[in-house]
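DM from R.C. (forwarded with permission)

"hey, sorry to bug you on a friday — could you get me a structure for this? deadline for the figure draft is monday and I only need the backbone to look sensible"
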Amino acid sequence: MTDKFGPTSTADEVLEGVDLSGKRVLVTGVSAGIGVETARALAAHGATVIGAVRDLSKARAATADFTGDFELVELDLASLASVHACADRLNADGRSFDLLIANAGVMAAPEGRTPDGFETHFAINHVGHFVLVNRLAPLLQEGGRFVSVSSAGHRIADVDLNDPNFEHTPYDRWVAYGRSKTANVLFAVEFDRRHRNRGIRATAVYPGGIRTELHRHLSQAELDELVRSVAAARPEGAPPLRIKSVPQGAATSIWAGTVAEADAIGGRYCEDCHVADVVEDAGTHGGVRSYAIDPERAKLLWAMSEKLAGEQF
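My reply, with the result:
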């Protein structure tokens, strides 16, 4: 693959000279942070972009200066009823998609349950997207792509297939976040396996360390301590921790969804506009844990997710 792009590349740099006219894209979480920048850049380069958001008023304000073809639909990933309604609306419309980006998420939230009884991180970061994307899969055109936005937080914990909702395990907000981010990767792995015969590829991405509303459940002191601890864990000789800008944070999702080689990113985990290596050393910066791209665990998570959601895909 080309080395043209890297950790400092921005969304607009990735799309420089790229005309997305005629392409239709869905992005979740287009009310703040990299979701807004992802949608803005895609629309500015010609794509028709559908932003799926929980708070329409907030999203309208955040996207007021967008140029290009852009619209909003309501979506609360914490509610399967809302997920169903959003998917039904888009399916009834009938227009196809070239790219689905599951960008919305929550991090380090206090213990909670959604109306459907799921742990908050697992519900919003995984189950809601699992149902939405699978219900929209028939609308994906041949050659289309699905990008699942994960995190380096997947290194914290593998999915727990026996206790996804912390019913028998003491709750830890970072473990909950880590499990859900691993689920994001495994979902992409199995989605890719199931749809690549249609020419549709799926991948998971880590946007990088960015200061956005994702950190809203952390106090400033907790956020400062998180940055300090991550920086301190970097191996000797590694470059210092660098916080990305929002335009840089949106770059990898856009790269994987539009310009990367499909066969290279399919079923993989990407960071800094590259496919990441498998790394098991806890002290090593970058890379993906092998459990997050294990095809057998991906199949098991898929089956469990179908059972929890009450439908098969």
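R.C.: lifesaver. The longest strand covers residues 140-149.
me: no worries. Residues 11-309 form a domain with the Rossmann fold fold (CATH 3.40.50.720).
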